[in-house]
Structure to design on (289 residues):
């Protein structure tokens, strides 16, 4: 029989619930609508820490005008049951005004130039909202480590940069993306997809696999292979396809890189990424090695 986690809906309750927790303490920030990917994060936290705190909070400041804040799935009862099964110790489930109290003067965390590319270019202000709420959660929970999925790779990269550059003293752990049998990344937004759009969306992960397989032929081949697959997906509207360094800088000539994509199937916007290893360009014959 699983034990129910302690639930905190206010900051005062959170402080009471986390007082005296055995360390190290791990934090898993979520927006709820939990799936196997979230469960994997909690399991990874359980393996690394003495106590696990999970936040379930749909953060309004990371949604832009016209985005899906109001219809973002909220499944609190199922979420709490899942977290009980996975052994979370404390669940922080606050209302908006508990995280953003009245009278605040509007101090935020700016992501810098890296927040204006890829997702940041399509969703202006998104990463200011993400980093601000993560910084608030770090301040409230004071975790020793925090776990984030690699599916949101730009988010993971920016959280790591924030922790490093603001000396927040939290170990940020990236956990590999959990995928369905056809390779599609698990996402809370997948439930929006009709069967037709679900089949179309599966082409996103197929494109990433094709790109990664072309790594030995170099960067141009990687992008070409991924573009070719995306072009086959009728009804898939691409926001971006980018090859970068692991830190999201310019891609290297050879070595580790990251291939990232965002696209829309119907009204549902999905993101995904994969690691790529680029081989050195072949040298012309006769040149010294």
């Amino acid at each position: 029989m699983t034990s129910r986690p302690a639930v905190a809906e206010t900051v005062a309750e959170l402080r009471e619930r986390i007082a005296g927790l055995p360390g190290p303490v791990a934090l898993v920030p979520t927006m709820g609508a939990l799936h196997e990917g979230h469960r994997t994060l909690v399991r990874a936290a359980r393996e690394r820490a003495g106590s696990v705190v999970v936040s379930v909070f749909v953060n309004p400041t990371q949604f832009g005008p016209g985005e899906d804040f109001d219809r973002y799935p909220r499944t609190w009862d199922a979420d709490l049951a899942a977290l009980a099964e996975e052994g979370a110790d404390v669940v922080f489930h606050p209302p908006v005004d508990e995280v953003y109290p009245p009278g605040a003067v509007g101090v935020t965390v700016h992501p810098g130039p890296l927040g204006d590319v890829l997702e940041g270019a399509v969703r202006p202000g998104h990463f200011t909202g993400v980093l601000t709420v993560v910084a608030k959660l770090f301040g409230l929970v004071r975790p020793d480590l925090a776990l984030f999925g690699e599916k949101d790779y730009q988010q993971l990269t920016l959280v790591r940069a924030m922790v490093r550059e603001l000396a927040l003293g939290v170990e940020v752990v990236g956990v590999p993306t959990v995928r369905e049998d056809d390779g599609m990344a698990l996402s809370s937004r997948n439930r929006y997809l009709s069967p037709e759009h679900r089949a179309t969306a599966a082409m996103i992960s197929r494109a990433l696999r094709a790109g990664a397989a072309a790594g030995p032929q170099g960067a141009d081949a990687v992008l070409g292979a991924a573009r070719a697959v995306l072009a086959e997906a009728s009804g898939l509207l691409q926001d971006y396809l980018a090859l970068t360094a692991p830190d999201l800088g310019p891609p290297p000539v050879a070595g580790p890189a990251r291939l990232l994509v965002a696209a829309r199937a119907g009204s549902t916007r999905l993101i995904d990424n994969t690691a790529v290893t680029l081989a050195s360009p072949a040298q012309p014959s006769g040149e010294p090695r």
Q: What stands out?
A: Confidence is low (pLDDT under 50) at residues 283-287.
